[in-house]
Specification:
Immunoglobulin-like, TIM Barrel, 15 helices, 23% strand, seven-stranded mixed beta sheet, nine-stranded parallel beta sheet, alpha/beta
């Protein structure tokens, strides 16, 4: 059977059973938050302190939506075209924040978005546009601070735009310096490389001088260009690893690696057109995951999806999905066709999805938000473990307290050494099944957990917590509570009086009351009526102890 026939058969089978895929526990769910031209943020420039706070507030509202939809990663466009959205020693401020190139907005957007993401349990990856450095107009607007002015020997002018020359070995070191600046100054969770390639119509790219200067004898132009891009990717990856073992490095190559038997790339593929070799990057361990930009449909999508999954080499591939294609001016895709790409990606073994762009989520094209929240993203998901980076083999957290008050719910536990964060689970049955994504309450907590709502008690009865390390390897679980046995043995408590009423027990001498974690909250001589003031709502064990008898009862206070 030929390759094309196999693909067609597989495609038919998965299309029939698309709705059979449940929410996975581990999955990368990312959005590209585009700042170039203010596509996703910001909508208005900063002009005074009030507009600065409005700009920040707009960003928070975007992140609130991302969190609500159970995404877990934000690719924040940090370097655009030779300019940046943080105070850099290398490149000037982009104009989009203030309306003026090079002007400081009065705050650090990169620092702000990282903090805002972490407050919401989201990872923040600095999205770096690598090779393009702007039009003539952009370059002139930055004058002496522009990349072209400061590093003219690294730049080429082509088709009305300026680009860094991948053939100059110093280009790799220049980009690595920018990345070093970010990873050493900011607590980012990842570096995401975009446009790490030669530009369109690359056969006309004016690099004959650098080819003559730097290419090895008998090295073809195509092979030399591939090695140039490899050198940039590897230099950046090694730089990040040198300064941080925790920060993930990813990239967004073209959506098709090469032409497949029976399926043309239509002249637009990584290895054939722009000299990217992301499969080699994965094989050589120089990317933690890749996000191919697969903004295509049907035969231009599924065969190439399979090809990516077949060449992961133990790393991860996330399908970059064109949410913008739902918009009537950008393709007018049906919602069912778009959703099928998520379902089918999961079936084939893809490690997650990234949506381009955040703005299309905000606009809710074709009611995408409702579909995501009710089906494929109905539950939170954890980042997939990356044991190839390391494993700290964490111990389980030690629960300290689980408190139900009139308007809040609190979970407290001891910090686990070297833990990056914690996951809180809930279940209606005991023990809590932490492999069920439907039991995840919060997928990334920095320390302890509280909510202003007791609604969790309507969905869950038992709770557990785990710790995870820098590479998302998870610890054993620790249970907050266990079933009460002899549940029929109830004790009545009059809350208004603050008194506990007991049956007369002639053979009982002592009473001990513990919360569900075993912490003693009362100990005294037994009496049929005991004053018990200021006891928080919750479930308690009551031990009635005599010389030759011990009884356990349950006390519920609400």
């Amino acid at each position: 059977m030929c390759f094309r026939s196999k693909i067609v058969i597989i495609f038919v089978l998965i299309a029939i059973s698309a709705n059979a895929v449940s929410n996975p526990k581990h999955e990368i769910r990312a959005v590209w938050l585009t700042t170039n031209w203010g596509l996703d943020w910001p909508s208005k420039p900063v002009s005074d302190p009030l507009s600065r706070e409005k700009q920040k507030g707009e960003l928070c509202r975007v992140l609130d939506l991302v969190k609500k939809l159970n995404f877990n990663v934000v690719f924040f466009q940090t370097r655009l075209r030779g300019d940046v959205l943080y105070p850099s020693a290398y490149e000037p401020w982009n104009y989009i924040l203030t309306g003026q190139p090079g002007r400081n907005p009065g705050y650090d957007p990169l620092d702000y978005v990282i903090q805002a993401c972490h407050e919401r349990g989201l990872e923040c990856h600095a999205w770096i546009v690598c090779i393009p450095v702007g039009s003539n107009r952009q370059v002139k607007s930055h004058r002496a601070k522009s990349v072209v002015y400061q590093h003219r020997d690294l730049c080429k002018y082509f088709n009305g735009e300026w680009y860094l020359d991948p053939g100059n070995p110093q280009t790799a070191f220049y980009l690595a310096s920018l990345v070093k600046e970010i990873v050493t100054c900011y607590p980012v969770d990842g570096i995401h490389l975009d446009y790490i390639r030669y530009p369109e119509n690359s056969h006309r790219f004016p690099d004959s001088d650098t080819y003559r200067k730097y290419a090895n004898p008998n090295q073809t132009l195509a092979r030399w260009r591939q090695e140039n891009i490899n050198r940039i990717v590897y230099t950046i990856y090694d730089t990040v690893r040198y300064y941080s073992p925790r920060i993930k490095v990813s990239s967004s190559p073209l959506g098709k690696y090469n032409t497949l038997p029976g399926f043309s790339s239509l002249g637009w593929s990584c290895i054939e057109t722009v000299y990217q070799d992301p499969q080699k990057w994965l094989k050589d361990g120089k990317q933690d995951f890749i996000v191919p930009m697969m903004y295509f449909s049907e035969q231009s999508f599924y065969p190439f999806l399979v090809n990516w999954v077949q060449h992961k080499f133990g790393r991860m591939v996330v399908s970059g999905l064109g949410a913008y294609r739902l918009y009537y001016k950008e393709g007018d895709w049906s919602l069912s066709d778009f959703m099928r790409q998520i379902y089918d990606g999961r079936k084939y073994g893809i490690d997650g999805q990234a949506f381009y762009r955040t703005g299309n989520l905000i606009r809710n094209d074709k009611r995408l938000l409702e579909e995501l929240s009710s089906t494929v993203y109905a539950h939170p998901a954890l980042m997939p473990p990356m044991p190839y980076l390391g494993n700290k083999y964490l111990s389980a957290p030690k629960p300290l307290e689980y408190v139900i008050s009139e308007d809040s719910l609190y979970f407290l536990w001891d910090n686990v050494p070297q833990a990056q964060g914690y996951v809180l689970y809930g279940s209606t049955t005991y023990p809590v099944d932490i492999n069920n994504a439907g039991n995840i309450i919060e997928a990334r907590i920095s320390k302890n957990f509280s909510t202003q709502s007791r609604s969790l008690l309507n969905s869950f009865r038992y709770f557990a917590v785990t710790a995870f390390d820098d590479y998302y390897n998870e610890s054993p679980q620790a249970d907050f509570n266990q079933p009460f046995y002899n549940i029929s043995e109830r004790i009545e408590y009059n809350k208004s009086e603050g008194k506990l009423y007991l049956d007369i027990e002639n053979d009982i001498d002592q009473i001990i009351i513990q919360n569900i974690l075993g912490k003693e909250i009362f100990k005294g001589r037994y009496s049929p009526k005991i004053g018990l003031q200021n006891i928080p709502n919750g479930a308690y064990r009551v031990w009635l102890i005599g010389k030759s008898i011990q009884k356990e009862k349950i006390l519920l206070i609400f």
